[in-house]
Amino acid sequence: LRVTVARSAGAAAVIKGDIYYCGGGSDAVDILDTKRGRWSRASLGMSSPQLLGDQIDGRLYVMDVNSRKLIRFDPTTKRVEKLADVPTRRINGTVIAAGGRLYAIGGYSPDVNAANCVEVYDPKKNRWSKGTPLPGYRPLDHFHSAAVLNGKLDV
Q1: Segment among 17-21, 114-118, 145-149 with least mean pLDDT
Q2: How far is CA 77 from CA 47, 55, 72, 81, 121, in A?
Q3: pLDDT tens digit string along 75-90?
Q4: pLDDT value at position 142?
Q5: Is 117 a residue whose pLDDT tops 80?
Q6: How far is CA 139 from CA 60, 92, 114, 117, in A?
Q7: Bridge partner list, 52
Q8: What are the beta bridge partners of residue 64?
Q9: Distance between CA atoms of 79 and 87, rounded to whole angstroms?
Q10: Cβ of 120: how many Cβ atoms within 10 Å?
Q11: What is the rounded average pLDDT of the residues 1-28?
Q12: How far, in Å, are 83, 94, 108 from residue 127 at the CA level?
């Protein structure tokens, strides 16, 4: 099945067996109902060439890398909630959920050296905090990926 609009540099997550994808200059989130094999669409209320995100407790968290905005999309109500701004503007980093928190990791920022930057969002407090910087980084390393394996976050 094809997504409803061709785009890139987006965020994707699986929530209750369905696939959610947003980004690439569109203000929509495309939703693949995997049981029916059909796409639907909802509005995110923001558009950006690059979005990063993941899901926590069945809600999609999306970070706009250009504006530092963070939003939460509730698939049940289709409502969007603006959350605390991300402290560091960055591109080409990664965002991943682990242990009920959202991690913004690495990337490039014209404002600061973000290559080893780790920031942690707590959805219960709607607050960001500094995480442990990435060890052994090089200033030009700003394309990051991350995964959670056996409860451990690996970058």
Answers
A1: 145-149
A2: 20, 15, 12, 11, 23
A3: 999 999 999 999 988 8
A4: 63
A5: yes
A6: 30, 13, 8, 11
A7: 63
A8: 51
A9: 24
A10: 17
A11: 83
A12: 9, 18, 22
Q: Which long-range contacts (CB under 8 A, 24 or more apart) does 33-37 make?
A: 37/1
**CA pseudo-torsion sign 82, 104, 96, 101:** negative
Whether residue 114 contacts residue 130, with contact meaning beta carbons closer than 8 Å, is answered with: no
Residues 131-155 pLDDT 10s: 988 887 666 666 777 778 787 777 7
Q: 73 forms bridges with which residues in the sheet?
A: 60, 80
> Long-range contacts: 110-113, Cβ < 8 Å, 24+?
112/88, 113/139
Q: Write the burial class of residue 53 (CB in 10 Å: 0-12 exposed, 13-18 middle, 19+ buried).
A: buried
